[in-house]
Amino acid sequence: MKKQQPFHNALGTFWLQRFPLQSSPTLQAWDAADEYLLAYCVENKLLNKKNRLLIINDQFGALHTSLQAYPRQSWSDSYLNQSASLHNLRLNQFEPLLDFVPSTSNPQGMFELVLIKIPKTLALLEDQLIKLKPHINAKTQIISAAMTRNLHTSTLKLFEKILGTTRTTLAKKKARLVLTEYKNNHLKLTSPYPNQRLMKPLDLQLQHHANVFSKSKLDLGSLLMIEQFKHLPTARFIVDLACGSGVLGIMAKRHQPESQINFLDESYMAVASAQLNYESYYYDKSRFIVGDSLSQFNPKQAIDLILCNPPFHQQHALGDQMAWRMFTQSFKQLTQGGVLWIVGNRHLHYQSKLKKIFGNSQLIIENKKFQVISAYKK
Question: Does the predicted TM-score (pTM) go above 0.85?
Answer without folding.
Answer: yes
